[in-house]
């Protein structure tokens, strides 16, 4: 009888452990997905410079997925700094910071990813995407 109880309770605990593990992995997976960038759909549209095509790149979405985790949903700052100052940056300066971690001659902390290496959502980041993100920040 006691044996049976011990067995049952250890079975219950291993189930609890199992369920908790799945829960944690799912959580990590979801965060990983969010950190890794935009959905394939937004990328699939292609980016025609300066033309109003169907959603090619969505700066807000890209920012939410790839930047907001560190810079805050409104670029107000978090792990990374408030990005308001970058509104006045020329696009090439902004791109250099985002792609290569160089801002106005300064090497940014390695906490800031080099998106030229990591890509956005696993695809190489395109100039149109960087511009869309910059425009999104400017619109805040
Ligand atoms: C893992 C956290 C993290 C993510 C994700 C991240 N950043 Fe950063 N970012 C930082 C940190 C930390 C700094 C500050 C580095 C420093 O000052 O040395 C920074 C600095 C910057 C700067 C320079 C700001 C300045 O005033 O010098 C820009 C621009 C920037 N990030 C844009 C972005 C954009 C756009 C994205 C998304 C595509 C992004 N970051 C994603 C952490 C992050």
Automatic annotation (TrEMBL):
The keyword Methyltransferase does not apply. Residues 54-140 form the Cytochrome c domain. It holds the Pfam family Cytochrom_C. Gene3D superfamilies: Cytochrome c-like domain. Keywords: Heme, Iron, Membrane, Metal-binding, Transmembrane, Transmembrane helix. The chain crosses the membrane at residues 12-31. This is Cytochrome c. It comes from Deinococcus rubellus.
């Amino acid at each position: 009888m006691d044996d049976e109880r011990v067995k049952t309770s250890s079975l219950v605990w291993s189930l609890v452990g199992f369920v908790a593990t799945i829960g944690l992995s799912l959580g990590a997976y979801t965060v990983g997905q969010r950190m890794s960038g935009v959905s394939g759909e937004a990328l699939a549209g292609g980016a025609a410079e300066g033309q109003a095509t169907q959603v090619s790149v969505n700066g807000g979405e890209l920012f939410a997925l790839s930047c907001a985790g560190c810079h805050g949903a409104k670029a107000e700052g978090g792990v990374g700094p408030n990005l308001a100052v970058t509104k006045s940056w020329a696009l090439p300066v902004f791109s250099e910071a985002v792609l290569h971690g160089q801002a106005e001659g300064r090497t940014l902390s390695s906490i800031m990813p080099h998106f030229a290496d990591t890509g956005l959502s696993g695809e190489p980041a395109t100039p149109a995407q960087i511009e869309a993100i910059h425009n999104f920040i400017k619109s805040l």
